[in-house]
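User: My collaborator sent over this chain with a note saying "see what the structure looks like." That's all I know about it. Can you take a look?
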Amino acid sequence: MARMPRIKRIDEDGWYHLCARVAGRSGWFPFEDPLARMKLLMLIKKYLEVFFCEAAGFCLMGNHYHLISKFEAFRTLSREELYQRALKLYKNPNAVLVSDRQWERFNRRLFDISEFMRSLQSEYAKWYNRTYDRKGAFWGDRFKSVLLGENQSIMDAVFYVELNPVRAKLVERPEDWSWSSAYLREIGDDGWLTPLSELIPAAAEYDVESNYKYRLYYRGGIQTKAGTGFIPAKIVASEAEKGFRRPGAFSQKIKYFTEGLVLGSEIQIRDWITRMRREMYYLRRRHPISHHLDGAIHYTLREQRCIQKPNDSPVNHCSMARG
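Assistant: Without extra context I'll predict from the sequence alone. Here is the result:
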C-alpha cells in the first residue's frame, strides 16, 4: 500500500504537532551538547520568522524535538513582501529568485510545513556535520506531523510536549527543563511564542498564566510547589468535565500525539475521513478512532493496535495500522 500522504491544511490556518528524531546508533544524544541545542533553537526561531507560522510550545530532548506550530492559510503576497522574507534567507534574493515562476514557488513555500521542516533540518544537519566533523545523514525517518483540531487538542498537545522531560524522569517539573516553552514562560522569555491569552480563555478569578500552570500540573500529576498554592477545585472540576477524572493522564507516553495524523473532536475527524475517502484514501475507514485515556476520549484519524501486557496501560506497546 502506498505511504499515507502528509495531511496539511493549505487554504485555512492549521495547528500541527511536529516531531523529528536523529538518525544514527541507539544511545546517540547529540542535543545533550548545549551548543547543539542552542543552534537548533536559534534555527527554529529563524524559520518561524521566515515562514508564515508561529509556535505555541516546544521541547528539545537529547535525540529529538517537538514543536507545536500554527501555519497560516496560503495567500498571494506582493513582490515586496516576498523580497523582505527572502532577505532573511538569501544575501541577494534577485540572484536566486529570477523568474516569475520561482517567485510564485517561493510564495507557496512560505506557508508549507514540509518546506519549513526541510529548510530547518537541512541547514541544521549541514551545520552539525561541519561543526562536529561528521558525515552521513543526521535526521532519521521523515518528520512526524499531527494536525490538531479545536483549542483543547492544541493545548493538550502543548501540555504533552512540555511534560516530555518529566516522563523521561529528567526533571520533576516541566519548567525545570531549560530547553522548553514551559521554562521560557516560567522566566518570562516567551515573547516569541504564541501568547497564552490566545490559547486559553481567562477565568474570572484566575489569570491565564495560573490557568495554564494548573492544567499543566494536573495533566502531569505533579504537586504544586510549596508556597504557590494548590490546583483550585474549579480547575479540577473543569478537567473532570472534560473526562480527566484524576491527575497524571499525560505521565505516560501516548503514541497518537505523534502518530495519529489528525487529533481533534469526533466531528472534526469525521470531516477528515470524508475528505480522505473522497480522495481515495482510507476507503475502509468510516468512523473516527477513539482512544480512551483515564476516562477521557481523544479522536484520531489513524488507528493504533495495542498489544497489552498484564498491568500495562492500553496506550503502551502500540504499533500503527493503516485503515
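A starting point for your reply to your collaborator: Strands lie at 14-21, 53-60, 64-71, 144-148, 262-264, 289-293, 296-300, 303-306, 318-321.
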